[in-house]
Amino acid sequence: MKLGELQQHARHYINGRWETGVTTGISENPSDTREVVAEYARADRSQAELAIRAAAEALPHWSHSAPQRRADVLDQIGSELLARKDELGALLAREEGKTLPEAVGEVARAGQIFKFFAGEALRIPGETMASVRPGVQVDVTREPVGVVGLIAPWNFPFAIPAWKIAPALAYGNTVVFKPAESVPACGWALAEIISRSTLPAGVFNLVMGSGREVGQAFVDSPLVNALSFTGSVATGERILQSAAARRAKVQLEMGGKNPLVVLADADLEQAVECALQGSYFSTGQRCTASSRLIVEAPMHDAFVARLRQRLAALKVGHALERGTEMGPVADRSQLDQNQAYLEIARNEGAEHVWGGELLERPTPGHYMSPALFLARPEHRIAREEVFGPIACVLRADDYEHALALANDTPFGLCAGICTTSLKHAMHFKRHAEVGMTMVNLPTAGVDFHVPFGGRKGSSYGPREQGRYAAEFYTTVKTGYMLA
């Protein structure tokens, strides 16, 4: 099946075969809601369980496969993603609403992730050491954790599945993968590439459908040894409770309410650009988005005025249109949630600075202008993750107050600071209660070869990405031998 045939039907990939579903769903283009991007098969619980059994049956062979074979498979997948980044980027922009340059960049990143883990497949760590007992040798090795259930979100439909699937396969695990229901075409396109990579049947399986049916089957099955989930806090907590009851390994990424601190000594234009990119690019639909802009008092008014100017000039439009800087919101339910938060902010007394209006464009879509408020720390818009092009500014008395505001959140994914003070930059990096810090950079935008994850309510379990992925996708075995 080629991309051009997607509108006809995107199917499941189970045990090396393309399968139809029990029902059919559609995904639409948020830039032009008249366009159906794909019809896709929707599985029920029994079909998900078939995929899980296929992965379990394939595990003994794949878990003992040669590292070079795994490396070759991953490298092949990565090469095809990179070669087709423009074509696949256009598909991503159509289905999720990310601007075309951002979408092409995401597909390229997915390709780079597969190639990185192709190398990691040849570098699986281990060590040998002397025992405290004479004549005994000790070695520590890493082995696959088993069948891994991967549940991905809609906001990065190529990159996030890549950074889950690639390490899972690199370390010898077998995979059952559920993409988000709003981006089935992207999930199918990635699976179609993987299906042609000479993997044995059952090693990789794609099952599309609801979290109630497919996701819950992953969570409940005793054959699924580990679960990696990216999505909402409420769903992540339910997964953790259910999976912990049967002692499955769990990794969760559940979002953030990320601060960008702007000190009085910061370069104004640089700080505004960091805020603009971090808060509003990708339509603010990133867990790393800086939705809380904490600005030291002497800089506050100038920063707000300049950011307002930049927002007024930001071009919002069709994701595929040249020059578009911010595309539509991903779907109607997300747009409705954004609008509800705008009303909450007004009702609680936050001062509206700019934006938030629904926009009309030549094509019908989920368009809104980027919104900015002045808020207080107790406002819900300053405490809850909105996941849209909405940010608020909090005024800070000084650096110590700014740091306290930055840490005053149940989340802890990332935090940024704009300053020319090395002292404050280094102090902030040490004392921000997060998993990632940025200095004079947008909070959104991370490298693929280093750990990704947070603290507090943002994450649970080992980090994703980079060589730290081995902590989740492998289990450690200690061996003793009489020499």
Distance between the termini: 56 Å
Quote the average pLDDT.
Answer: 96
Overall geometry: globular
Compute the number of structural domains. Answer: 2
In short:
By secondary structure, the chain is of the alpha/beta class. It is built from 14 helices and 22 strands. Strands 14-15-16-13-12-18-19 form a seven-stranded mixed sheet, with helices on both faces. Strands 9-8-7-10-11-21 form a six-stranded mixed sheet, sandwiched between helices. Strands 5-6-22 form a three-stranded antiparallel sheet.
Key terms:
483 residues; alpha/beta; Aldehyde Dehydrogenase, Chain A, domain 1; 2 domains; 14 helices
Walk me through the structure.
With 483 residues, this protein is an alpha/beta fold. The protein folds into two domains: 277 residues, 3-Layer(aba) Sandwich (Aldehyde Dehydrogenase, Chain A, domain 1), CATH 3.40.605.10; 189 residues, Aldehyde Dehydrogenase, Chain A, domain 2. Helices cover 38% and strands 22% of the residues. It is built from 14 helices and 22 strands. A seven-stranded mixed β-sheet has the order 14-15-16-13-12-18-19, with helices on both faces. Strands 9-8-7-10-11-21 form a six-stranded mixed β-sheet, with helices on both faces. A three-stranded antiparallel β-sheet has the order 5-6-22. Helix 2 runs antiparallel to helix 4, helix 3 crosses helix 4 and helix 9 crosses helix 10. The chain is globular. 54% of the residues are buried. The model has no long low-confidence stretch (mean pLDDT 96).
